[in-house]
Amino acid sequence: MLGEFIKYDPENKSGYEDLVLEVCGLQYRKQASGFAVVVPPLNAGSSVDDHPDEAEFESAYSKLSEEEQKRLCCFLLFPAEAEIKKREIIHCWIGMRFMDSMDAEHLLAKFVSVGLIERTFLYKKILNRYRMPISVRSCLLGRQTNPLAQIKNDGSWSILHHQKMGNLDETEPMRRSLLRRMTMVGSPPPDPSAISDGNTDPEALLNVSQTTLNAARFKTMSGMEKLRVVHLGRWHQDSKEYIVVEDIEAFKYLRNLSNVAFLSLEGVSGIVKLPESVYDLRLLKVLDLRACNNLETLPPGIKSLDLTILDLSGCYLLDHVPLGITSLTNLQQLKGFVINNDQLQQKPNGRTKRKTKEKGKRTAASSPCSFGELSKLEKLRKLTILTRKMNFPTPQDFETLCELENLSCLRITWVGNSTTEVPPDSDDLGMFPSSLEKLELQAAPNPIASRLLSLISQDTENCGLEKLYLRGGGLRELKHFFPQPTIVRLRYLPQLQINWDDFIKLFPNLKRLEVLGCPNLALFPCDENGIWENTQ
Predict the structure, then answer these.
(1) Which of 34, 69, 103, 382 has the fewest CB atoms found within 10 Å of its own CB?
(2) CA distances from 30 to 40, 110, 111 (A)
(3) How many domains does the chain fold into?
């Protein structure tokens, strides 16, 4: 309906859009990086304007450098109108050797500001997902002066490759000699010679929808020796869907892909031990093993890699992370680091077993990595921890955290049961690193949560904490003063009791509050979506 109004009255297009935004109760959002404003899509299936003037697209597109245009084309690797998680597109950029993760968020914000992609909202909650409007996708594919991409889609696999062109313009530098072309191929993947005819080199492979991977598929893939991005795992938001590998031995074909910089096995089941062939990928920068639900062991060969991002989130059977990880001196993000109880190894099903003597001698690289050893990772910026020690963090652990001078994001999840003993309070625990900007505490026992919140409130001079997220656990009260945080999330805290007047006094600089599953908060002025924003 909106498209029809705009079609017949284009001069008042902006007025119609503003009216729809007002009726829907949606507001413009500013990107954290300062790039203009973000208008959320009105629904998941369409944008404000389904048929934009091509001149508008060209105007926005022309504001990008050639390198930025190449990065934008990576969105074409995913299905039309797909909601793409931020980390997926950033990992692809790193894999294609376009940029590192620190610059990526600024570029995403720029793409949003000029209208080439949209930030995804759920009600009023900002999600870390993006989508390219179908109209923008069509214009990008249909450009005549610079045919960046060509699509053939049956929804199974996506391949991105360069096409070597002749000299398009003798006055243009050599850097314009490579243009992007995209091909969507079905099941099974084509023979490499069919897509690499001497003029093309496949560089990215995405599993769009296949839930089963067989040996033939791996063998075919091994012929694409120029691949930089191999995304075999899950990329969408359906966390209940897993991908099955019929023959683990088929992973041996990976060793032929010596140029791979990003390997995703997210949601791939049946991997108990990470195949040794992965460690032959010496150019690998991003290894995504998120939600590999059968993964129990990382071999010591991990020390041979030069990773910048390692994601082990959701690998709940993983008993420990090997000491060899401390050799990854360029690691910037480590997600899913495991801390076990010294005496007991607690399994996710609640059962415990005593440690037994292992057959043979463990090598140094395969021995469990203690938390203190992480101080060697001087470039670490993001760290998520799963701890089965209820007294974590100890004073020694705080010393390790403070040695990570670049650490800006920290998430700690406690895994235990109600009978686990928590040590008595200590007044001399330590402080969080001054570089910390975001802290998330998940399932923290009440004594631990209260103690850590007390430390944050005491360190008013050195702490630059901007975001404080509390999710699950036994927290019962908030009683400390927090002058730093501007964004707070309270989720699934059934025992927390406080009224609004007392709460807002504790957070004088609060700009945004998100509440979910906290039934004992009194008189909080949140809207129907659990959101409160300071509009003053």
Answers:
(1) 34
(2) 11, 11, 13
(3) 1
